[in-house]
Design goal:
about 250 residues, alpha/beta
Length: about 250
């Protein structure tokens, strides 16, 4: 296991919140509350329009990684409204969310498109964070493992094993996102173990170093218990990452 794998990962997904002015104010406050810690990896996924502001705010904090919430799978072309992986990289992003639940279930993104975005990210030198998770009806039908494994296999189907070894995975049960309902640490852990096993099938021993984050209504009250669960290597946080003090408290958990 590498030193990197030992670091807990804290990723903020701002969704469609915090434009450039709010991003500037957020980072001013956050950076006063969070000094660099070698045992932590901190990633921000701001809206694309706020990325440059975030990158500027982090000029003296290379320990914090800027990211984007989505990319198109083509590098350029007639795709009005989209941004590509090379553009995100050029603007300073290092990480990209791929297959977030809202992309899949609000915007209709398919497994196939998710796979193409994973490949585009790797081509451009961005680290993809592949998001997987089951809907409530799938959970109730006992399909959680099957759904997560299907999404994981599809998302990694067109990238090489050495690239798979460099990704991050986020397990976010759809029913837990933005609902105030969280998976129990035991449930999260059980699914994370399935993901770890599947990653091991794909890349062997290197799977041990792939961070698997939990996401879905994480807050200051449940962060510690979730992080203590087996195979939970970090947290992907939406709502509770929008307040700089609250978020810094979670990052320092
Ligand atoms: P939430 O969102 O923390 O607001 O539930 C998590 C996510 O969608 O990444």
């Amino acid at each position: 296991m590498t030193a990197d794998a030992m670091r807990l990962v804290f990723a903020a997904n701002w969704k469609m919140h915090l434009g450039p002015s709010d991003t500037r104010a957020f980072m001013r406050a956050f950076l006063t509350h969070y000094a660099r810690r070698p045992d932590r990896r901190v990633i921000f996924f701001p809206p694309a329009l706020s990325l440059t502001t975030l990158v500027d705010a982090l000029r003296d904090r290379p320990d914090i990684e800027p990211g984007v919430q989505n990319i198109h799978w083509e590098d350029k072309g007639a795709f009005t409204g989209e941004s590509s992986a090379p553009m995100a990289r050029d603007a300073g992003a290092k990480v990209v969310l791929v297959g977030h639940s809202e992309r899949r279930h609000v915007f209709g993104e398919t497994d196939d498109e998710t796979a193409k975005k994973m490949a585009a990210a790797v081509r451009a030198g961005l680290v993809p964070m592949l998001c997987v998770g089951e809907k409530i009806e799938e959970r109730e039908a006992g399909q959680t493992q099957a759904v997560v494994v299907r999404q994981l296999r599809a998302g990694t189907s067109v990238i090489e094993p050495h690239a798979i070894a460099g990704i991050l995975v986020a397990y976010e049960p759809v029913w837990a996102i933005g609902t105030g309902k969280t998976a129990t640490p035991e449930d999260a852990s059980a699914t994370h173990q399935v993901i770890r096993h599947e990653l091991t099938v794909l890349v062997g021993d290197k799977a041990a170093a792939i961070p698997i984050l939990y996401g879905g209504s994480v807050n200051q009250g449940n962060a510690q218990a979730l992080l203590a669960a087996a195979e939970v290597n970090g947290l992907l946080v939406g709502g509770a990452s929008l307040d700089p003090e609250g978020w810094s408290t979670i990052v320092r958990t």
